[in-house]
């Protein structure tokens, strides 16, 4: 028997009763675009593993950050600098004129509470590879025995230095100071508390100025200059 459309609803009709035809494809409810998400055992395991790895990674990152910070606080990264350089009045008109050359040093450790003190023992003043003057700590062995060798003495004084040839005003770039110093570290540190440093400070720029009377002064040009050093646990020198 042929089916006809219901005039009031436009649906297929058989025996005067309207009914919807089943869709040709898709689900029985006619809802192809929306399907309910079903949490299976496999998907649950994947989600659980993802969040477990995420939380573990965050905890590990936090732990490593704390450990690294504590290690940095307990270690002194020492840096040595020429802090100042000065030459007292000397004369450019007197060939026999001498002057005192004073060089001070500073040791720093950035980022922590370490405090470092230097005590210079023996120093050499050079221009290029040519020795100009030497300086020694007085009563070195007496201070060593009495424990005063670790008292702060972060400078060298070169007495009655004759003015090197070629210095008569302007900047001299090739001055160098090498020295031996004991050091002591106080504060929070896992580094050795004391020892000796063999320090070399090269390329020190010193600006010399001359007044109308021929008196000359010298001072460090610019800011502090970095030095290289080697660490020693013991130091012996036959000259003392």
From TrEMBL:
UniProt superkingdom: Eukaryota
Keyword Transmembrane helix: yes
Key words of the record: Membrane, Transmembrane, Transmembrane helix
Identification of the protein by name: Late embryogenesis abundant protein LEA-2 subgroup domain-containing protein
Transmembrane residue ranges: 44-66
Organism: Microthlaspi erraticum
